[in-house]
Write a structure and sequence with these properties.
The complex is a heterodimer of chains A (about 475) and B (about 450).
Chain A (H helix, E strand, L loop, with lengths): L2 H14 L13 E3 L6 H10 L4 H15 L23 E3 L13 H10 L3 H8 L2 E6 L2 E5 L2 H6 L3 E4 H7 L1 H7 L10 H9 L4 E5 L9 E6 L10 E6 L4 E9 L7 E3 L2 E6 L4 E9 L11 E11 L5 E8 L4 E4 L2 E4 L5 E10 L4 E4 L2 E4 L5 E10 L4 E10 L7 E10 L5 E10 L5 E10 L2 H9 L4 H17 L4 H15 L5
Parallel strand pairs in A: 3-7, 6-8, 7-9, 8-11, 9-12, 10-13, 11-13, 12-14, 13-15, 13-16, 14-17, 15-18, 16-19, 17-20, 18-21, 19-21, 20-22, 21-23, 22-24
Antiparallel strand pairs in A: 1-2, 3-4, 5-6
Helix pairs in contact in A: 1-12, 2-3, 3-9, 7-8, 10-11, 11-12
Chain B lengths: L1 H20 L5 H13 L16 H4 L4 E2 L10 H5 L9 E6 L2 E8 L8 E4 H7 L3 H5 L12 H8 L5 E5 L9 E7 L5 E3 L2 E6 L4 E10 L6 E10 L4 E9 L5 E10 L4 E8 L4 E10 L5 E10 L4 E10 L5 E10 L4 E10 L7 E10 L5 E10 L5 E9 L3 H8 L5 H17 L5 H15 L5
Parallel strand pairs in B: 1-7, 2-6, 5-8, 6-9, 7-10, 8-10, 9-11, 10-12, 11-13, 12-14, 13-15, 14-16, 15-17, 16-18, 17-19, 18-20, 19-21
Antiparallel strand pairs in B: 2-3, 4-5
Helix pairs in contact in B: 1-2, 2-7, 8-9
The chains are: A alpha/beta (about 475), B alpha/beta (about 450).
């Protein structure tokens, strides 16, 4: 038996598990705030985190603006509106160990990570991945910091960065996604609990893939992560983000903000596997995922590459974008979005060409099954002075069954005649002849569909780091299970 | 903001004048339309469907509905400029949206076929009108303010009704000419109904006698029954100061074939809406468009194709050439309903920017609820292929001519689909004339 068939068998085994695999609740006591949102709550969050005065003011400014905003409703999704006064805006595990070695970590917590398939110990030794694990809202474990520190790389929770590196934070926080950007970004700016901060100094190539595992845990807690990554001149970093959440009946809100800043000749590769609880087969429960992700290619020859595999969440609303400001900068977006049962996804990207000779590529694969709706919504904008801009977009959709929907809403705004912009989209289904071919070779229909779908998404999976690609394949199989026949 | 409200009030006030003179069967419909018109507002850039076009210049003017102004006419020679060489047609001329029988030719079709002026039939109180115009259900889901403005002042337009199995031997050439110095609002309301197995070809031409400022607001309703076949060529070459809006609705039944061309050259601001409802199996729908913009023209084409039943095909190709500060907009949507399995739907929008100040905004959209379909859309924007240009020039062709050759090649995908040879030639000519480039 060769490696590939073994992998296939593994895949089939995984498929046979019926329920949401990552659905469990670990009981760690959580430090909780009363429900609701007002200035006092924001001051309290800020105080608990020992934030300096400027940060508190920054949050309050965002909050005041948020009060004037209305929740947007242009996306092609329907959901029960969130009562923002019925949420708890801060929750942190009670035990907050300052990490020196893994022994100090709460054994309960370690077990959780093991269930998630990311034993810190193993990852440290074998995979060479430094993990900044965010458990609910406060970072409790940061590894490999010393190795990274030797190179001058800063990789820490953003709450620490605010205290230890205020100059960098002040300079860049909100520079790509301002507090006033949109409803959810404003809310996040006001109440964000924690997240990752990465700074790669000039000319440094980050020796390992940086990774954060997010996990929503305490009941009724909206998660407001804030990630800020800065790649200084000539540097490179690959950042992974993966998410799982325990099974729960009530809808949970997740409104994260990610900001990327890339200076001259630098590159950031940002990969996401998102597998939050999508709700059950009747469409009950599930996470609301309203995320603002944006990167700016500030310098010449800079590059941002977004790769995402979106299989979870009841409602996904997410448009990772690139502002191509520097000359010769490059933006890429690779996405696989899978929806099943009653899931709804409205996702895509924004590529804004400002500098000369800027290039962008968009590859988006949408798969809808069950009674779900899956939309691609993207913008390619070429500004007046963006000479020789180049864009290629391809958005393919696949439908399984006639109760689901697949939609494409691209926007092309071209103001410079030296630009070349191409957009292509197709919609199709899994070919009957393809399934027949595989059936004939003794492969069940469900597995055949999995194989075909995996092939359909290959272009995007190829962009993921190895370990992530395997996880993504499994997730795809689990997400689509029961959607055939 | 004030402009908009004043402008709206202006039309409502004029309606009261219009009402007293209007005593035909449609007065109830007109009243209904104006009531709905009052409840709506003119769109702004905040409306998703109007986000790229700036219609403020249009709303700054108070246009006088032409039915309230003195009758005007044009010389026969002026009209004959628009005739196509050696092409025999039935010619219908509308001056400021009002039928002029003296300028028209070949009006006698026998009593079963209705072809000609809507106003004539209105005044005769022909009972067939009720059937043609589904008055009861009309306007129920209509929320387009320009559509309502047209219906409120419903007065005249081109009417065509072909009974079962009628095949018309020559094309209809419907010339709408705007004239006079007043700022007039011309609102033709065209109504076309082809019963099963009938066939027709119509050329709608919208032109202006002088470079006047006027507003042409058209509604065209097309209904094509089983196995019927219709070609529509709409040529818009109005004054560079004119405003032009058309709302077309196309309803197709089983095995019908429609080819619709929208060819836009003139007007300062142009907005074409085409809604095609494919309510039948084996329907074939082809929408072709050409839009040529220069100076500060804005041309906005919106199409919406809805596949309701299985086994139908739609094919859409819109091409634009934009020079100077012109802005070209394309927004196309294909909706495939759950029952519409085995649908083939293709949509393509391509535009060329000849100047570095021209703008192209494109929004090709798919909304699909059936799984066994083949749908695709594509959009490209760019300038003329520099390598092709070099290739042609290296063979001794002057730069300007080489450019024209490439323009000709670019638009040919649309032009070659026109089945009337004389019209093809005319369009080719108009393109180079409009772009002020060497003809090829």
């Amino acid at each position: 038996m060769n490696e590939e068939t073994r992998e296939d068998i593994k895949l089939v085994e995984d498929v046979t598990q019926t329920d949401y695999k990552w659905g469990f609740v670990s009981d760690i006591e959580a430090d909780e705030f009363p429900k609701g949102l007002n200035e006092d709550i924001i001051r309290k969050i800020s105080k608990i985190k020992n934030e300096p005065e400027w940060m508190t003011e920054w949050r309050l400014k965002a909050y005041k603006h948020w009060l004037t905003m209305e929740e947007p409703d242009w996306a092609k999704v329907n959901y029960e509106k969130v009562d923002y006064q019925d949420l708890i805006y801060f929750s942190a595990p009670k035990k907050k160990p300052e990490l020196e070695s893994l022994d100090e970590v709460d054994p309960e917590l370690l077990k959780t990570f093991e269930k998630l398939g990311i034993p810190l110990e193993e990852q440290k030794k074998l995979a060479g991945v430094a993990v900044d694990a965010v458990f609910d809202s406060v970072s409790v474990a940061t590894t490999f910091r010393e190795t990274l520190a030797e190179k001058g790389i800063i990789f820490c929770p953003i709450s620490e960065a605010i205290i230890n590196h205020p100059d960098l934070v002040k300079k860049y926080l909100g520079s790509v996604v301002p507090q006033t950007d949109n409803f959810f970004a404003a809310l996040n700016s006001a109440v964000f609990s924690d997240g990752s901060f990465v700074y790669i100094p000039k000319g440094v190539r980050c020796p390992m893939e940086l990774s954060t595992y997010f996990r929503i845990n305490a009941e009724n807690t909206g998660q407001f992560e804030r990630t800020l990554i800065i790649a200084d001149e000539g540097s490179y970093v690959s950042y992974l983000e993966g998410c799982t959440a325990p099974m729960r009946d009530e809808n949970q809100l997740h409104a994260a903000v990610v900001e990327l800043i890339v200076l001259d000749d630098a590159e950031i590769k940002y990969s996401t596997v998102q597998n939050w609880y999508p709700g059950d087969k009747e469409g009950k429960g599930g996470i609301y995922n309203f995320v603002t992700k944006r990167g700016i290619c500030k310098g010449k020859n800079s590059k941002i590459s977004w790769t995402q595999v979106e299989t979870g969440s009841a409602v996904t609303w997410k448009y990772p974008g690139c502002i191509l400001l520097g000359d010769n900068s490059v933006g890429e977006f690779y996405s696989v979005a899978v929806t099943n049962n009653f899931q709804q996804a409205d996702t895509g990207t924004k590529m804004v060409h400002i500098g000369k000779n800027t290039k962008s590529t968009i590859i988006s694969k949408g798969i809808s099954a069950g009674k779900s709706n899956n939309s691609y919504r993207g913008l390619v904008k070429v500004n007046k002075n963006a000479e020789n801009a180049r864009n290629f977009s391809q958005c393919d959709s696949m439908l399984m069954g006639n109760k689901c929907g697949a939609h494409t809403f691209p926007y092309l705004e071209i103001e410079n005649n030296s630009a070349t912009v191409e957009h292509e989209a197709t919609t199709s289904k899994v070919g009957e002849d393809q399934i027949f071919y595989l059936n004939q070779r003794g492969i069940s229909t469900e597995d055949a569909v999995n194989m075909i779908v995996n092939g359909f998404c290959k272009e995007v999976f190829n962009e993921l780091p190895m370990e992530f690609a395997i996880e993504a394949q499994k997730l795809l199989a689990i997400s689509l299970e029961g959607s055939v026949g | 903001m004030k402009n908009r409200i004043d402008n709206q009030k202006w039309y409502v006030d004029n309606f009261n004048l219009f009402k007293s003179s209007n005593k035909n069967v449609f007065s109830t419909l007109s009243n209904k339309a104006i009531e709905k018109f009052k409840t709506l507002e003119f769109p702004t850039k905040k409306d998703e469907e109007w986000k790229y076009i700036n219609i403020n210049p249009l709303l700054k003017n108070n246009f006088l509905p032409s039915s309230l102004s003195a009758n005007s006419s044009v010389n026969l020679e002026t009209i004959e400029e628009y005739t196509l060489d050696n092409l025999d047609v039935y010619r219908f001329v509308f001056v400021n949206g009002i039928f002029n029988s003296e300028l028209s030719t070949g009006l006698d079709f026998g009593k079963d076929i209705i072809a000609g002026s809507l106003s004539n039939l209105l005044n005769k109180n022909d009972t067939r009108l009720e059937k043609l115009f589904d008055i009861k259900n009309k306007l129920q889901k209509d929320n387009n303010i320009f559509n309502l403005l047209n219906t409120a002042f419903l007065h005249d337009g081109f009417l065509l009704y072909l009974p079962k199995g009628t095949i018309i031997d020559k094309p209809f050439h419907v010339i709408n000419i705007s004239t006079g110095n007043n700022k007039l609002l011309n609102q033709p309301h065209n109504l076309i109904h082809l019963e099963s197995n009938s066939k027709a070809e119509i050329i709608f031409e919208y032109v202006s006698e002088k470079a006047t400022e006027h507003f042409t607001n058209i509604v065209t309703e097309i209904s094509v029954d089983e196995n019927a076949n219709l070609n529509v060529y709409k040529i818009q070459n109005e004054s560079p100061n004119a405003f032009h809006i058309e709302n077309s609705n196309i309803l197709q039944k089983n095995s019908s074939v429609v080819k619709h061309f929208s060819l836009s050259f003139g007007a300062l601001i142009t907005r074409n809406n085409i809604n095609a409802e494919l309510d039948g199996e084996n329907v074939e729908n082809n929408l072709y468009g050409l839009y040529l913009g220069n100076k500060n023209q804005q041309i906005d084409n919106h199409t919406f194709i809805e596949h309701i039943k299985p086994n139908s095909n739609s094919n859409e190709l819109y091409k634009g050439i934009l020079d100077d500060d012109a802005k070209g907009i394309f927004s196309g949507k294909i909706l495939v309903q759950k029952e519409a399995q085995k649908t083939n739907a293709f949509q393509s929008n391509k535009s060329v920017l000849l100047s570095n100040k021209a703008i192209s905004d494109s929004k090709p959209q798919l909304e699909i609820y059936a799984d066994d379909v083949k749908c695709s859309h594509g959009a490209t924007v760019g300038k003329l292929d520099q390598e092709a240009l070099f290739y042609i020039r290296s063979r001794g062709v002057p730069l300007e001519l080489a450019r024209s050759m490439l323009i000709r090649a670019f638009i040919d995908d649309v032009v070659k689909e026109i089945s009337i040879e004389q019209l093809r030639e005319k369009i080719n000519h108009t393109i180079f004339q409009h772009l002020k480039r060497v003809e090829f």
